[in-house]
Amino acid sequence: MTGLYIIIVASIKSFIKNNHFMTSAALAYYGIFASIPMLILAALLLGGYFTSSTSATVGLKQITSIVLPEQQDVILQEAYTLSSLKGSWGLIGIVACVWSITPLMSTLRLVFANIFGEVNRRQFLIELAIDVVVVLLFLLILISLVIGSIIYSHVTSVIFKQIPFVYQLIGLSTNLLISIAALTAFFYVLIPVRTGFWNILTGVLVTAFLWALVKPSFAYFVVANPHFGFALGSLKTILMIILWVYMSFFILLIGVEFTANMHRRGIITLKYLIETGRATINNALTYQYAKLYNARDVVFKTGDAGGEMFYILSGEVQITESGGVVISQLTEGRIFGETSMLLHTERTHTAVAAMDNTALLPINVSDFDTLSRHDPQLVVTLLRQMAGQSARL
């Protein structure tokens, strides 16, 4: 449970640190303008190549109902009306639709990269080409979901319609399954690093759960406050859509933060152990991430490769020269072995545990680099401590 607690706390902190309240507002703005051209392209392709216009309409409505409130009909009606004018949709019109969606995809990719700590060093034209490819991938995902939903609904109605209880249960689970499938594809396309399936699934499930929780609450709010936005007249519907899209991106970014922190949970745990110290010595995290030594156990000796430095969680360590002469006695909270790690050189001294149950937290170069990107203040603190120790030696 401690590991889950660390991930939750880290996700909340990073959400606030990255100012996702404002990010959600920006994404909602882009999302509203991108939704109509995306639905137009989906309706054109579905109605023209994959299924009938009626089936496409029903399928799109079912899919969009997952991420849009009941007021979705306003957007859908605009998309259907425009897509029905097939004679006016040539190559230029399709290119214009794709172009109008790219700002949303570009912003999403930038947000995901920021959350995962990735720096963009590609040229503008390459970035633009990637945005277009991402738009096409999302269009393919949307079409696949609609087709899958149509087939799924047809199969379940044929097989289970005679069993009302099972049919209703399947109907209730359909939106959840579609949400999980769509979000999983969404995360795989936009996450800029390679990460494990379970890391992605964690963020997906968090997002799907919060969506399932918030959507009926939002619907209840609308019903319970019929005069909300009354002064806006016919623009009230647009206000409701904007609010819901904002909340949807807000929830989505929470899920992305969970995935990012699951991806770097090792570093987060290192940080947690360093900051909490002795208070965590007896829990499972210590036995998972720390190395335990008894008195007179050698941590490293002169001439060994310096691949990592060590943070003393508990116990004591003696640094000795040739002949066993003790030149330094280090206690908990101290760091040693950093010079060889940072300079990629061999060890110039020998380190020996001076007490039983001495717990040492190893930090390699990759861990140190990741910490420097995600928590530079902690790295500055460690560097000051290293400098202070060097001055005393």
Detailed description of the structure:
The model has no long low-confidence stretch (mean pLDDT 78). This protein has 14 helices and eight strands. The chain has 393 residues and is of the alpha+beta class. The longest helix is centred in the middle third of the chain and has 37 residues, at 124-160.
Question: Which terms would index this structure?
Answer:
9% strand; 393 residues; elongated; 8 strands; single chain; Jelly Rolls; alpha+beta; 2 domains; four-stranded antiparallel sheet; 69% helix; 14 helices
Q: How many distinct beta strands?
A: 8
Q: From the alpha-carbon coordinates, what is the Rg to the nearest angstrom? A: 28 Å
β-strand amount: 5-15%
Helix count from the secondary structure assignment: 14
> Structural class of the helix and strand makeup?
alpha+beta
Q: Span between N and C termini?
A: 41 Å
The pLDDT mean sits at: 78
Shape: elongated
> What is the string of helix and strand elements?
HHHHHHHHHHHEEEEEEHEEHH
Binned, the helix content reads: 55-70%
Q: Kindly give the count of domains.
A: 2
- Ranges where pLDDT stays below 50 over 5 or more residues in a row are none
Oligomer: single chain
